[in-house]
Design the sequence.
């Protein structure tokens, strides 16, 4: 591709003519003091024609009261966005209610499409398209970023990623739509009401990944209600009968399998409606932080950094693995200190029995819960640092290694003490008390650290900002410049990882020892109801708007939850087998007791696997729709081949 | 599509001109006394141009000494076969050693392609293409098969399938290539030698499904050798030490996981080389036996027979399921009779101790083994009948239901007595004896019934045929007519189902009770070595040549083997826990024993699942090759979209 000589002025004038249509979608913040030549080159590449290797987007500097601040607004023409929608493979609904991959040539067949309907693509979709186009803006012959010789480029390297890693580009973020956000807030958490969340609206505004998290959170809360309802009488009437506990545990185990299987179906329904179930996977580019010496990628045949897989394996097995083991050991060490504390509190209580001393009994658990939370958070940073140091080429591989590290540690850190109490100390009373304290404390801490604290900080910051600008306007009245300046200071939402992790640990508290503490489900339900509100608040008011990320499922978390439910079968069977009530049923032979429990456990596990196998992952109508689409594409291919064959055979 | 009026003569004369190139590939046998008008219509449809809805193949009646016998030979021009290869989506090797889907337009880029090289497609591939084209020969406006008003047709119905179900078409089978077969036989089992089978040659001649079976059989045999080698000293030195048995069982369990995981990788290597790993799944048509009232298929939108899913469910749950349960009950009943017999033999032996009486001890087991085999075979027919009566629309669904029925029954039928002896009678001596007798008897019976008996029958038949034709020629000298006449009388190979089932049961004998009878692996290895030879003999000399079936893996059998290996963890742990040597290690507390065994069992299961998760299903180089292909296709799509976008944006 030969780059035609093109004057800067030309593209800017092109922009000027369409400025009336310019709708700012994405904000680019460059570092203060970025060289002029760099800015010129970068903006030129953004507005350049596709044929010349540009992104063909629109860009406009933001002029504020303080003057020019190296902040740019990016938009795109309607036509450009439609072509971008085809490039990212968006799936939209057609006039015949089927979901199809959008192509510009077949645009007339799509529902609500009209050449002048600029709402055919949602704002989140437009922003996703612009992000995709910006990230795919690639170096041609440039050897470096103009003005920054140390920021090397090679043909095919994503310019934006290089700018980000060399610190020239501070951030790229999508703008909020104040009107839309207000509407969404109102229907989401604006009034206290019983009902479902507006998932489709959330998806339109925040994208599929976040909507799916809220969908899962809501589903999970509803799914816990039967367990909570059944659990309440156990507490109220202080039931301790053997058969009732067994029934509760059995119900729990089967129920947890059912809800995880049913979630897959609901997830398929949601993502089919949103189009992401049908979306083709894009080829995965190296993640931004990946570095290495220039070499030939055997898959793409392109020159790009390569990093030996052996070196990475060495780093994983010789550094990361020992480090994780060390952390696990440390966590166990802290646990032993907790038990010393517990013992000390018990001794104290026995010596001077008073209201204060019986309250003191709870103190070690509360301290331990706080320490666990702190350790989890510190470990999280260490895990991120280590995984990033392992230098994974793909984001997916990075994520898998990070999730594995974090899950193993968090699982041990949170549940080791409970396992120890249950299966080494055999102290059911302490187990119940410990479980309750850990669960409730961690819930309170999480709610506080995750949403309320950032909200309060944000609020304070906003007030200060407003005082500075001396304006008394409400949010929706803000000028664009004020809005951008406010949003660029907001925190960045780091993805759904922590939110899922919290649910995962909660699921562990509820299911692992469910037969000992049936009330856990009640607390989980209560927590999740407020969690929906505080997470919604967090998304709408605390953080910058995140880019929409299309996704078809909750990924590795499905596996994590399923693994937890398998482990909980084992723990619950053991707990029931150890209870004195069950013991009393086998007065003669402990052997028979253990064998019976082992048999029931295997039976439950077998039922679980058979159920997971038998319940189809997608509802029948979604299966039919997918089959229909597949049939059509095969039919089209066949027709094409038939035509070709008929032509070739016409001697 | 308007059908052009075309005289019969034209197409036949077209055939005459190319007759010198005519290579018979597939034989069609019509019923004796088929009406002339039907034959004329059918052959015309076969030779008709693609554009007129025909198959555009070549067809020639076979004229034998006895005159015209309604047998036709089908072939195709080289060009027709190449276009057919594109239609079925064959994947071939390119000049740059990558595997790609063959298209006629890119034919020059494929390895060994030349316009005059008629060996570019193997004979098996040509025959598969012809089968595909014949099966896809569909009715246009015909309401019935001409001459047979009861054989209804509707637009889009496969003509060949209707002809088959109405008995007009007796059979379609591919011709053997005597020269090739002789070469294959020689390299396969012609001389006694140590080494691998010529899998690539087998695949070229018989297709991927059969080659993959032989590949699995060979792999499985090699994989059993370590177990056999370790098992021999246990027998020779009569080791009965606890630690040695535990070691053997542990090795067995981990080994069986490893071999099943490694098989997936080897399977990927094989099918990548053969091109089937990359082959796109074709849209599945209704199976031949499916019937129903005409309706609209919601997926294809075509008019075709539909059958209510509720009716099918009713048949499955109200008839098939009770029937299977009844059969299971009957099988258990027979088992109880066997135990009576066993008891009687033991009593007899105790009363009159002699050589004869100690031989008599084995008789009940042998009788029982024979009865098991007979019951398995009878049940097989019943299961086929029932599953066919359930009227599944798709062949895959039919196969899954059939396999499930057969597996459950065979598992119980073969192993129930062993489970009973092991875990109810606790008689390890009887278990070992029973296991040995069952394994060896069933192996002998299988080898006899599967290969030697049909071979002998075939040999006798051939001799008689030769006497009738008074010819003394060897196989390769036979005229085409003689060859066709001989082959059409041969039995039809019914697929790999029985062969895999046999291996599956053998795997059960070897692994379920491996710690009791380490010699089982030795017998399995010996059996499998002869099995390779007898199965090869069966394929080459006993049965008609089967049509090649492309496949990318061994399908549901992988799951079946994995399930068996999970079950064997449980049984082995129980057996070891019950052994007196282990018992002696825990003199004080049986409780500790059981808990230890349960703990080890869970640990082994966890290791199994982690291993299955960690070992990648495809070797790294195959993953890279697949990624490369995916990248290329995405890149091509992007280029296409870029071009379109550049055009659309050029105002």
Sequence:
């Amino acid at each position: 591709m030969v780059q035609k000589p093109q004057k800067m002025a030309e593209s800017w004038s092109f922009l000027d003519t369409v400025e009336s249509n310019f709708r700012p979608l994405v904000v680019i913040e460059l570092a203060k003091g970025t060289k002029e030549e760099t800015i010129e080159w970068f903006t030129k590449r953004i507005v350049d024609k596709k044929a010349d290797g540009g992104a063909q987007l629109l860009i406009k500097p933001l002029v504020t009261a303080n003057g020019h601040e190296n902040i740019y607004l990016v938009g795109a023409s309607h036509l450009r966005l439609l072509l971008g929608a085809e490039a990212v493979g968006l799936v939209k609904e057609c006039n015949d209610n089927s979901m199809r991959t959008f192509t510009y040539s077949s645009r007339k067949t799509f529902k609500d499409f009209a050449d002048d309907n600029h709402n055919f693509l949602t704002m989140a979709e437009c922003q996703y398209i612009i992000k995709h186009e910006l990230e795919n803006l690639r170096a041609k012959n440039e050897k470096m970023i103009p003005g920054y010789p140390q920021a090397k480029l090679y043909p095919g390297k994503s310019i934006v990623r290089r700018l980000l890693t060399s610190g020239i580009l501070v951030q790229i973020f999508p703008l909020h739509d104040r009107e839309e956000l207000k509407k969404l807030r109102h229907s989401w958490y604006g009034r206290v009401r019983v009902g479902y969340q507006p998932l489709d609206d959330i998806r339109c505004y925040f994208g599929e990944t976040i909507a799916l998290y809220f969908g899962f959170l809501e589903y999970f809360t509803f799914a816990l209600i039967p367990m909570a309802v059944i659990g309440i009488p156990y507490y109220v009437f202080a039931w301790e009968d053997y058969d009732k506990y067994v029934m509760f545990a059995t119900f729990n185990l089967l129920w947890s399998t059912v809800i995880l299987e049913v979630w897959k179906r609901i997830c398929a329904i949601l993502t089919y409606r949103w189009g992401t179930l049908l979306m083709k996977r894009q080829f995965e580019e190296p993640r931004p932080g990946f570095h290495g010496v220039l070499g030939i990628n055997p898959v793409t045949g392109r020159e790009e950094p390569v990093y030996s897989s052996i070196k990475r394996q060495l780093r994983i097995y010789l550094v990361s693995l020992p480090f994780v083991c060390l952390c696990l050991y440390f966590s166990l060490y802290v646990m032993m200190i907790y038990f010393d504390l517990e013992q000390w509190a018990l001794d104290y209580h026995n010596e001077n029995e008073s209201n204060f001393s019986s309250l003191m009994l709870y103190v070690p658990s509360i301290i331990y819960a706080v320490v666990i939370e702190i350790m989890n958070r510190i470990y999280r940073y260490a895990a991120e640092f280590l995984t990033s140091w392992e230098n994974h080429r793909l984001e997916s591989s990075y994520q898998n290694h990070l999730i594995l590290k974090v899950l193993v540690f968090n699982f041990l850190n949170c549940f080791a003490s409970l396992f120890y109490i249950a299966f080494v100390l055999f102290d059911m009373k302490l187990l119940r008390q410990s479980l309750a304290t850990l669960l409730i404390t961690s819930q309170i801490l999480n709610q506080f650290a995750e949403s309320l604290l950032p909200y309060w900080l944000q609020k304070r910051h906003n007030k200060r900002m407003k005082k500075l600008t001396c304006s008394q306007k409400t949010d929706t009245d803000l000028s664009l410049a004020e809005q951008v300046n406010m949003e660029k200071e907001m925190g960045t939402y780091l993805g759904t990882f922590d939110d899922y992790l919290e649910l995962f640990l909660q699921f562990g508290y509820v299911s692992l020892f469910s037969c000992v503490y049936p009330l856990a489900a009640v607390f989980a339900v209560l927590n999740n109801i407020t969690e929906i509100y505080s997470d919604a608040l967090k998304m709408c008011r605390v953080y910058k708007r995140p880019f929409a990320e299309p996704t078809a499922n909750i990924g590795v978390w499905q596996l994590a939850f399923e693994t937890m439910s398998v482990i909980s079968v084992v723990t619950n069977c053991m707990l029931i087998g150890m209870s004195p009530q069950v013991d009393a049923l086998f007065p003669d032979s402990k052997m028979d007791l253990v064998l019976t429990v082992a048999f029931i456990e295997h039976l439950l596990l077998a039922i679980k696997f058979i159920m997971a196998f038998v319940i189809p992952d997608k509802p029948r109508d979604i299966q039919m729709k997918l089959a229909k689409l597949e049939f059509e594409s095969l039919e089209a291919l066949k027709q094409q081949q038939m035509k070709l064959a008929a032509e070739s055979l016409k001697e």
About this structure: The interface with chain B takes residues 49-51, 56, 79-80, 83, 86-87, 104-105, 282-283, 298-301, 570, 590-591, 594-595, 598, 602, 624, 627-628, 630-631, 634-635, 638, 641-642, 644-646, 648-650 of chain A (CB under 8 Å).
